[in-house]
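Structure tokens please, single chain.
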Amino acid sequence: MSEHIKDMKKTVIDVVLCAGLTSFLKLFWDGLELLFDGGIQESISDTVIAIILITILWRHIRKWIMVN
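Here you go.
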């Protein structure tokens, strides 16, 4: 039972971490687009770059968090 709860905690932390990183990156990216382009236009290339950045950040931040 303890192992099951530990896995559940790890999953919840991963989901919350990914959601937070996605929100932060979206806010930052939209700010840059407003600053440089004068408007927000989402594209496939933005999505691919965001996925790569979120994955890299998620892996590094996940190492700092320990689940007991």
